[in-house]
Here is the input.
Amino acid sequence: MIIYIKYMVSLRCKMIVKTELENLGLHYIDIDFGNVEILENINDTQRQTLHKNLMTNGLMLLSQEKSDLIDTIKSIILKMIHYAENDEVSKLNFSNYLEQTLGHPYAYLSTVFAEVKGITIEQYIILNKVERVKELIIYNELSFLEIANKLYYKNISHLTGQFKRITGLSPSYFKKLAQQRKRILTGDH
Here is the structure.
C-alpha cells in the first residue's frame, strides 16, 4: 500500500516518517519524498494516529482520495506516453485529457500532485517522455523524426531540447553511447 505525505522534502522528514511507522508497528518497503510504500493495509486508527503525529512535525498525511488521485494521474500519464499508439487519446493535450478523465480542474490536479511529488505534472510528463525516448533510441527501430512524431513533440528540435535539458546529452550522443555499450557487452569491438 502506498500512502502520500505532504511537505516531506528532506532526509529529516524521512526519518520522522520511519520512526512514526515503526511506532505503529507498520513495515515499510520504501520511503521516498512524498510517499511511503508499506506492507500492511493501514487501518483507520493507525491512519488517524499517523496523521496526528506527522502534523506535530509539520508533515501531513494525504487522504485516501487524494492518494488515489495521484496514483491515477501517474497511471494515465504513463499510459499516454508508453502505450498510446496514434489514437485520439494520445493526440490530446495532457491537461485537457486529465481534466476530462478525472473530472477535476487541471489547476487542482496540478496543485495536489506538486504538493506531494515535489514536481509539477508537466515535469513528471517530461521526465517520463525522456525515459520513453531513451527506450526507443536503445531499441534502434525508429529515427529521431519517428520518435518525435510518436511522442507528439512539435519537431525534432523540441525533442532534442527536452532530452538535453534532462539528460545533459543530445539524443544522437546518447544513441552513440548506447551502441558502444551494446558492442562492449556483446563482444563486438
The mean pLDDT is 89. The chain has ten helices and four strands.
